[in-house]
Amino acid sequence: MNKVDHSISQIDLPLDKQILNIAVNLSRLSQWVYEGYDKRVELINKFMKQTENYLNDLDKQKISEDFKPTLKRVKTEFNYLKETIQGQDRRLWAEKALTWANILTHRAKLA
Fold first, then answer.
1. By C-alpha distance, which of 102, 61, 100 is closest to 82?
2. Is CATH 1.20.120 correct for 15-110?
3. Euclidean distance between CA atoms 13 and 55, whole angstroms
4. Tens digits of per-residue pLDDT, 21-45?
5. pLDDT tens profile 41-60
6. What residues does each domain of the chain span?
7. CA dist., res. 35 & res. 21, Å (int)
8. Is residue 33 exposed (0-12), middle (13-18) or buried (19+ Cβ within 10 Å)?
């Protein structure tokens, strides 16, 4: 059995766990950006890339019809978060990331 490097991909995990890992990353990112983006730039960039990889992993899997609208929306919102992470309103950015972390936590079982 091949081992998967979970810092890059998590495709070997059950879908609900993959969704929860994305939610945890968004929650961490929310906190770090709120506390001061400049203090943790390297760590934030690493987790943004990891989260992007995790979201891309989902494209290679069978997602339930119930979860597809949520996935489509979170991908759109994540792209917006990527584009605006260095913006002026870090509190708003952190709030959006945390909101999506909470939504994914509650909807993971639908995946």
1. 100
2. yes
3. 13
4. 999 999 999 999 999 888 999 999 9
5. 999 999 999 999 999 999 99
6. 15-110
7. 21
8. buried
